[in-house]
Amino acid sequence: MNLLEIDFEGKLIRDILGISYDNEDFSKEQIAELVAQLDKIINDKNESSEKIAQAYVWKFQVLLDDYKLAPKLLEKALALCPNMPQALILTGVLCCFKEEERNYGKLLEYINKAIESESLYPFARRIHATVLKNFFREENHKEEILADYAEYIKLKPDCSFGYEKYGEYLVDKLSLHNRDNNFTDSEKQDIDTAIHYYSEAIKYNPSVENYESRVELYLIRENIYKSEDDHKNALADIVKYFSMYSENDINQIYVFSSNMFRNMNSALTEKYFKELMESFTSEKEAYWSIYHKYAVILREQEKYDDALEICTTIIKQSVTGTFRQLLGYEERASVYKDMQEYDKALDDYDKIIEFASWFKNEGKLSDEELNEKIPYELHPISVYTNRAYLFESKNIGKYDNETLFKINTKKAIDEYSKIIEIEGDEDATSSYSHRAHLYKTIEDYDNAIKDYNFILKYYKKVKKDAYLFVYEYQHRIELYLEKKKYIRAFIDFISYILYSFKEKFIENNYKEEKNNSKFRVVNIS
To answer: How many CB atoms lie within 10 A of CB 440?
Structure first.
């Protein structure tokens, strides 16, 4: 491994944010190889003080988990170059992380020293903004953070990073998702500014992520101003975005087409979809993803017949087992569900299970592959959850028909059992809870108690919040009373009281701490 191949600045950011703090970046063999290269520089008497100090700093980062050796390396670097910004920043990192309560204020002190010592060092500005943004969220540092990114841009004008981060921070502060058009004049200015910075970023890095971010802002601005220029710009960016993905990136294509119009009124959304479908031929997957999303919009407008027609066309025009066809079945099932035609919806989910390779033993994918490659709507957990809901919905208004009620409930229970098998016990507490409730409704109290037993045992193991225990104990008490096991019910009642008291104490204590604290440090690791 070559020293020049390593992004030491990127590694430092990840270490501070807790993304890779336990030295996962290097294997033992790589550490030995890097240390040998660095020691060679350190022991070379002909090397400059600056280069030797840099070697000490890099060695510190390679050996970050060796707390006995690491501080000495930084001391040696600062002895050679007292104002070396990298060494000052890392000294702050060490002071911050060695304390039981991470002292991000101390880290900021050292970063400020680094900026004072070397004003032309762009990384100091980047890390200063990163620390303020992630660990002092409840304080208003907007102007300071934007000044950091502006200075970074001034120092590295041909790098997209500063422009991207400037735009990204403005968008983050605007909280654009699920928001009406009630923007203040200042926020409207921020939208314009963010568009400018993403446009600059695209000059140096025309990535799909930058186009996606600018599209969202154009769409919002069009919603505000009803501007035809914004409409044309957004349409051009969307077409560009789709064209940058290959036909193999179908999951991403469908995700984007689902997300891009979430804040837009239905009439304008419909206009976009018609224009976009004219921009692509039916041979392109983007055409079908847009057509699919058009069906979603029609369903949300309760234009069920039109939505069904589109879904059926997608199904008929697709190769069996492809994402396109399966998403057609899934959306048609959603339409039928909204129309309360539950049997037809179940038939479509049956088709997904029949045709999707990952439901078959020979086509099984790992959990990681499922999450990465399969659209959420087609994930087995999503399919089985929707089927369970449909079986439960079939019981609405039919409580007098005990036989039919039990049949549908048992089928819903079977779906939750499949989910539990996929998720594994530790991730399936919600499914256990749903299944326990269903067992209770058909008076299968023994199985309901077994599920609540598992949930409570797991909560104790992982030390879950007190309010969760209160909820589950309450249900198990009811079951023990139904079975006339009064002693067990009484024991659970004692636990219920204790956890209720604990939850109330925690709630009051939290309120007191919140009122007394000047700021709250946010740990996103």
So the answer is: 19
For residue range 9-61, what is the model confidence (pLDDT) as tens digits?
777 666 666 544 444 467 788 888 888 989 999 999 899 999 999 999 888 88
Whole-angstrom CA distances from 473 to 42, 441, 504 are 63, 17, 16
Structure tokens, 124: 């100091």
Q: Which residues contact 138 (CB under 8 A, 6 or more apart)?
A: 519, 520, 522
One-letter amino acid identity for 45? K
Candidates 164, 229, 157, 172; CA nearest to 196 is: 164
Q: What is the average per-residue pLDDT within 191-196?
A: 95
Four-way CATH pick for 251-378: 3.30.200.40, 3.30.460.80, 1.25.40.10, 1.10.3720.10? 1.25.40.10
- Residue 60 phi/psi, 5-degree rounding, is -60, -45
Q: Report how far apart the first and last C-alpha atoms of the chain are (Å, whole number).
A: 28
Instruction: Name the segment(s) of the chain with CATH classification 1.25.40.10.
Output: 1-157, 251-378
Count of CA atoms in the C-beta half-sphere (13 A) of 131: 24
pLDDT over 50 at 459, yes or no: yes
Residue 93 near residue 16, CB atoms below 8 Å:
yes
Least confident residue range of 141-150, 389-398, 479-488: 389-398
Helices 122-135 and 142-155, interaxial angle, to 10°?
160
HEC secondary structure over 325-366: HHHHHHHHHHHHHHCCCHHHHHHHHHHHHHHCHHHCHHHCCC
Fold classification of 1-157 (topology level): 1.25.40
- The residues, any chain, with a CB within 8 Å of residue 235's CB and separated by 6 or more, are 272, 275, 276, 279
CA dihedral for 189, 175, 244, 227, sign (positive or negative): negative
pTM: 0.66
The predicted-structure confidence for 94-111, as pLDDT tens digits, reads as follows 787 776 677 888 889 999
Q: Yes or no: say if 494 and 477 are a contact pair by the CB < 8 Å rule.
A: no
3-state secondary structure of 48: coil
Residue 260 vs residues 79, 215, 446: alpha-carbon distances, Å: 54, 8, 48
DSSP secondary-structure letter at 1? -
413, containing H or E segment? helix 402-423
DSSP string, 261-293: TTTS-HHHHHHHHHHHHHHS-TTSHHHHHHHHH
